Amino acid sequence: MEENQGHTFFKFIIDYWSQIAVIITILVGGIGYLLKIGFDWDLKKREIKYSMILTKRTTALENFISNTNGYQTFFNNLPYYNVGRQEIEPIKIDEMVDKYKTPFYRSYGAFNIFAEVKDKSTIKEVYNLLLDNNKHLNKLLFSNLSQNEGYHPDDYFGSIVENGKKIDVLIEKLIISTGYGKL
């Protein structure tokens, strides 16, 4: 009886081999197609996520550069002799500084979130240089030139120009590092 069942099984396969091959092909093809759809979907999700992050990173970099340049230009264009002679009230200067400082801090924070780890030290250097500019402004603002104990406006301007050159180099380094300089 067992021989008969084995013989029947082989006879069935031999008689219907083409239909069995078609069914196996359909099953394997169907499974393969479903796997392909799953992989394509996962790949598309990753691509969208990467594209979104890249767009946000690019926007954050553009804002950071723009606000850095604006803040640095403010320090360069400040009538520092008038500040040194205390012809401009400190509260007025604070208002002028805040106009550039606040957007810079926001863009610094945003770019720091999206920046790659290798760029974070460069971003921090730019931040520290602008903070140093602010310290020089405070020195100038609260110095007493009439008694020659103060901080001379030329010292302020020299420091600002030197920091500006360093910032320009760091910004260029950031652009090259992020790969946007090649676009």
Q: In which range does the helix fraction lie?
A: over 70%
What would the average pLDDT be, to the nearest integer?
87
Instruction: Please indicate the count of domains.
Output: 2
Strand content of the residues, in percent?
under 5%
Helix tally equals: 6
Q: What is the level 1 CATH name of the largest domain?
A: Mainly Alpha
The major pleated sheet works out as: none
Tell me the distance between the termini: 78 Å
Structural class by helix and strand composition: mainly alpha
- The best one-word shape is rod-shaped
Contiguous low-pLDDT stretches (5 residues minimum) are: none
Under CATH, the topology of the largest domain can be stated as Four Helix Bundle (Hemerythrin (Met), subunit A)
* CATH architecture level-2 label of the largest domain: Up-down Bundle
Task: Count the beta strands.
Answer: 0
* C-alpha Rg (nearest Å): 34 Å
Secondary-structure element order, N to C: HHHHHH
What's this entry about, in short?
The chain is an all-alpha fold and 183 residues long. It is built from six helices and no strands.
Tell me what you see in this structure.
The protein is an all-alpha fold and 183 residues long. The chain is rod-shaped and about 115 Å long. It starts with a helix and ends in a 5-residue tail after the last helix. The chain has 2 domains: 2-37; 48-182, Up-down Bundle (Four Helix Bundle (Hemerythrin (Met), subunit A)). It contains 6 helices and no strands.
